[in-house]
């Protein structure tokens, strides 16, 4: 599937109307807040020299940072221009969003190297360096997400069409490794409060995906959870 880029004039594509349900972004943000809150502690908790555990945990860390990279890439390509064009009063905030993304991207670029160093001998020094980088990202990200949720997402809900908004989610799925889809989907499901989970899942995914989840993907997600969090996964909600 190809993603249609927004028009530079800011006009809505023909036949589309402004107004969309933006609730999915809060789930995505919840996963990132959770990940950057929990993983620094998990990384620091790996025993010196435990290369096997370092390999497992660093894999999860790299998945989290890749997820954030892809999510931001989607916003850069599909969100800022239409918001700025349709709501010029947001220009200063949009500029801030772009700057924060650029700063976070520079920090994210350091993660694969730090993760590889840690995997090598699983030293506590290398773990501390990786954990510090994650803390730094988490701090900047916390500020960024808060501002995006208060000043940008409500505007997007008013000025973007549902198809335009859905293209953001599609981008996130298309640019993420297919084999990791069970992890992505599992975390999304877990980010929904339990009482709303079943209804949300039914509403958000077509029957073939729900079946695939039940038959195959759920098992892979649970195996990943047990490997990464042998003492139980910290609550996501
Ligand atoms: Fe963002």
CATH secondary-structure class of the largest domain: Mainly Alpha
Uncertain stretches: none
Write down the overall mean pLDDT: 94
Number of spatially distinct domains? 2
- Total count of strands: 0
Terminus-to-terminus distance: 32 Å
CATH superfamily of the largest domain: nmb1532 protein domain like
Decide which structural class fits the backbone: mainly alpha
Mass-distribution shape: globular
Please estimate the helix content: over 70%
What's the number of helices?
A: 9
The percentage of residues in β strands lies in under 5%
Q: Which architecture of the largest domain per CATH?
A: Up-down Bundle
Quaternary state of the chains: single chain
């Amino acid at each position: 599937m190809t993603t249609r880029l927004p028009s530079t004039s800011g006009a809505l594509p023909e036949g589309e109307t402004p107004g969309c349900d933006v609730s999915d972004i809060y789930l995505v943000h919840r996963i990132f807040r959770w990940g950057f809150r929990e993983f620094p502690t998990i990384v620091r908790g790996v025993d010196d020299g435990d290369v096997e555990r370092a390999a497992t945990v660093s894999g999860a860390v790299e998945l989290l940072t890749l997820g954030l990279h892809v999510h931001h890439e989607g916003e850069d390509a599909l969100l800022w221009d239409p918001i700025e064009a349709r709501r010029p009063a947001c220009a200063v905030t949009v500029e801030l969003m772009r700057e924060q993304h650029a700063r976070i991207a520079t920090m994210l670029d350091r993660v694969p190297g730090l993760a590889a160093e840690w995997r090598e001998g699983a030293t506590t020094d290398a773990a501390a360096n990786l954990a510090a980088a994650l803390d730094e990202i988490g701090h900047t990200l916390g500020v960024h997400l808060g501002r995006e949720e208060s000043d940008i997402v409500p505007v997007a809900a008013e000025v973007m069409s549902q198809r335009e908004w859905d293209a953001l989610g599609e981008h996130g799925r298309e640019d993420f490794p297919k084999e990791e889809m069970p992890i992505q989907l599992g975390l999304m499901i877990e980010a929904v409060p339990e009482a709303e989970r079943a209804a949300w899942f039914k509403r958000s995914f077509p029957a073939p995906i729900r079946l695939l989840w039940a038959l195959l993907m759920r098992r892979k997600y649970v195996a990943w959870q047990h490997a990464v969090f042998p003492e139980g996964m910290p609550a996501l909600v």
